[in-house]
Amino acid sequence: MEDTRVPTPGKRKDPTCCGxxxxxxEELGAYVxxxxxxxxxxxxxxxxxxxxQALLLIHNELPGTNLTVYWNYDGCYQCLLQVLVHASRxxxxxxxxxxxxxxxxxxxxxxxxxxxxxxKELCRLEYKxxxxxxxxxxxxxxxxxxxxxxxxxxxxxxxxxSDLPVTVAFLVGLALVxxxxxxxxxxxxxxxxxxxxxxxxxxxxxxxxxxELGSPSRAGDPQPEAWRPSAAPLRLRCLDTFRGVxxxxxxxxxxxGGRYWYFRHSSWNGLTVADLxxxxxxFIMGSSIFLxxxxxxxxxxxxxxxxGKIAWRSFLLICIGIVVVNPNYCLGPLSWxxxxxxxxxxxxxxxxxxxAVLELLFFKPVPESCASERSCLSLLDVVSSWPQWLVILxxxxxxxxxxxxxxxxxxxxxxxGPGGIGDLGxxxxxxxxxxxxxxxxxxxxxxxxxxPSSAVLYHTEVAYDPEGILGTINSIVMAFLGVQAxxxxxxxxxxxxxxxxxxxxxxxxxxxxxxxxTKASENEGFIPVNKNLWxxxxxxxxxxxxxFILLVLYPxxxxxxxxxxxxxxxxxxxxxxxxxxxxVFENYFPFQWRLGDSQSHxxxxxxxxxxxxxxxxIAYVLYKKKVFWKI
Length: 631
Hints:
Residues 235-355 form the Heparan-alpha-glucosaminide N-acetyltransferase catalytic domain. The chain is an alpha+beta fold.
């Protein structure tokens, strides 16, 4: 851990600070320099810093004025400021009192200093502190007398670059991709391939030619060709690649993501990397439902038998999910009174059942002429699904009605906020509005997630489950949009332009809906993008991203064969095994080990990257051995 002491300023005897200003304004500024260490600082500077924290020293030079310092992140929407520290009055002129405290460094911090007795604001500061940095906030009388106090921020020790490990990891990964791609390109060149073959096998070739085992015909054998998509692939490789990308990111963020905030779920509204992957997994599941169902029914399987398989697979997913989200880690038997019921696999199971049954009930064979005739109706992939669309729209109507019109005791109707200290602390127990209320009413407080992401920033105290009952409706909508992607791929097979045009149209349409619902803002829209609620704007936004990714992957992977999907293709082919395995073995070596410095982003990042890479390697080995876990 970095040394957080205020540095000794060499031979200077002047106890004042020196350096340069980095802010603007007379009442409030930021100042880079070094402050002389005083006995008061020595006594109060012993604050043990953790990851994503900096040391802040409050120097109160106001005689007779006790200070209360309030703090919060600027990303905490309409939040009450929280008391950070109290700074007592200055005892003697020129000898300030000093209070030391740790402040967060993940986002821009808001600091407000009030007179404790009069509860009057003296100054206010917004500043982005750096990890393990050392700062001083000098509070003194304003020199111009225009205001009661001036607050000057001083940087005593510069912070570390906490994002450097991520940058290095990205550049190393990019270099590997470029190197492998370049080698593949060289290997595809016939002259280079022949030159390598001659250089490696020249001696062996001479020996074979001069022996009775030599065969002139061997010299003309063609080299194995690189992987190319077949004319009629049994499986669209881009879907497995997309699923593998989502699953690999999911494993990485579930293992900690190097403990970076942008690899964790958003506290409430907005998106981080961790918020992207689960909806994409649901989307690809929807595409796979239609493609696999069409294939099975074309082989002569009866609908009744297929319905039984759908019900059994859904039941297994739900059961496995309940086991996975309720580990005891050798702590004794788990009480049924506290078992969590919702979860990722549980939601996948319910979503799969509803969407698969819906498609089975209204299944129509794919017109054989559609793939070749230009006269085929341009919106056939949508029009042919009008019964399913009616059901989906009805379900979305139910979500909207319950979300905005269901009375929730003690909360405003239609509330979408996080509760806690959000919304100026008016609704502390209203986390999630109707969604949270339905879960607590039907499942009970002890059977849903006890540590929601909103607790970190908004200090919520009630349980809330991001995989709850109401959000499952929009999960079904997400999967059905994935079904539409699958229909496009099958209805317009071998018509690449038509497929890409439809992917582009869906991408723009869903994007425009998202802009309208959110007003292109994080918190000010009609329905903000929210992973905890699985809001409809969250669905349209992530679906637009999904169509865009398929717009890129389909021509690159399946049409032109420019990329085989390696290495993401392999976990995509064994997704259930990789997901369940990474959850079960999370705390076991070699996926986790004791770190030398538990407060280091670099060590956490290395551990999480190694663990993720191991699961990709396991998926590759299983693929080569043709071992697949199917439910």
